Amino acid sequence: MTHMLTSFMTPDATAIYAARHHALCLHPEGRYTGLDITLLPQGDMPLDAQLAVAERILAGVQQWRDGIAAAVEQAGTAEDGAE
Predict the structure, then answer these.
(1) pLDDT of the residue at 43
(2) Dihedral sign, CA of 67, 5, 56, 10?
Protein backbone atom coordinates (compact mmCIF):
# COMPACT_ATOMS: atom_id res chain seq x y z
CA MET A 1 0.00 0.00 0.00
CA THR A 2 1.41 3.38 -1.00
CA HIS A 3 0.17 6.77 0.08
CA MET A 4 1.81 10.11 -0.46
CA LEU A 5 1.08 13.00 1.83
CA THR A 6 2.62 16.42 1.89
CA SER A 7 2.11 18.57 4.95
CA PHE A 8 3.80 21.92 5.40
CA MET A 9 5.32 22.39 8.83
CA THR A 10 5.47 25.51 10.94
CA PRO A 11 8.37 26.44 13.25
CA ASP A 12 6.32 24.83 16.07
CA ALA A 13 6.30 21.35 14.45
CA THR A 14 6.83 18.44 16.83
CA ALA A 15 7.14 14.68 16.79
CA ILE A 16 6.06 12.41 19.62
CA TYR A 17 6.30 8.72 20.37
CA ALA A 18 2.98 7.12 21.23
CA ALA A 19 4.22 4.27 23.41
CA ARG A 20 0.93 2.38 23.62
CA HIS A 21 1.02 1.62 19.89
CA HIS A 22 4.75 2.08 19.18
CA ALA A 23 3.70 4.88 16.82
CA LEU A 24 5.44 8.00 15.62
CA CYS A 25 3.15 11.02 15.47
CA LEU A 26 4.20 14.13 13.56
CA HIS A 27 2.39 17.36 14.33
CA PRO A 28 3.33 19.85 11.58
CA GLU A 29 1.76 22.76 13.48
CA GLY A 30 3.00 21.73 16.93
CA ARG A 31 -0.37 20.43 18.09
CA TYR A 32 -3.08 18.05 16.92
CA THR A 33 -4.92 19.63 14.00
CA GLY A 34 -6.23 16.68 12.03
CA LEU A 35 -3.44 17.17 9.48
CA ASP A 36 -1.04 15.11 11.55
CA ILE A 37 0.90 12.11 10.31
CA THR A 38 0.93 8.93 12.35
CA LEU A 39 3.18 6.01 11.46
CA LEU A 40 1.85 2.80 12.97
CA PRO A 41 3.41 -0.65 12.62
CA GLN A 42 1.23 -3.38 11.16
CA GLY A 43 -0.50 -5.21 13.98
CA ASP A 44 1.57 -8.37 13.67
CA MET A 45 4.96 -6.71 13.07
CA PRO A 46 7.56 -8.13 15.49
CA LEU A 47 9.39 -5.67 17.71
CA ASP A 48 12.75 -6.34 16.04
CA ALA A 49 11.22 -5.44 12.65
CA GLN A 50 9.74 -2.27 14.20
CA LEU A 51 13.20 -1.38 15.49
CA ALA A 52 14.72 -1.88 12.03
CA VAL A 53 12.08 0.43 10.52
CA ALA A 54 12.67 3.04 13.23
CA GLU A 55 16.42 2.94 12.57
CA ARG A 56 15.87 3.51 8.81
CA ILE A 57 13.54 6.42 9.54
CA LEU A 58 16.04 7.83 12.04
CA ALA A 59 18.80 7.64 9.40
CA GLY A 60 16.61 9.57 6.95
CA VAL A 61 15.78 12.21 9.56
CA GLN A 62 19.48 12.55 10.39
CA GLN A 63 20.27 13.11 6.69
CA TRP A 64 17.49 15.72 6.53
CA ARG A 65 18.87 17.48 9.61
CA ASP A 66 22.44 17.35 8.31
CA GLY A 67 21.34 18.84 4.97
CA ILE A 68 19.62 21.71 6.74
CA ALA A 69 22.65 22.26 8.99
CA ALA A 70 24.92 22.36 5.92
CA ALA A 71 22.63 24.91 4.27
CA VAL A 72 22.67 27.05 7.43
CA GLU A 73 26.45 26.86 7.59
CA GLN A 74 26.75 27.70 3.89
CA ALA A 75 24.38 30.65 4.26
CA GLY A 76 26.39 31.90 7.24
CA THR A 77 29.63 31.57 5.25
CA ALA A 78 28.09 33.49 2.35
CA GLU A 79 26.89 36.23 4.71
CA ASP A 80 30.35 36.45 6.34
CA GLY A 81 31.97 36.86 2.93
CA ALA A 82 29.54 39.65 1.97
CA GLU A 83 30.51 41.81 4.93
Answers:
(1) 87
(2) positive
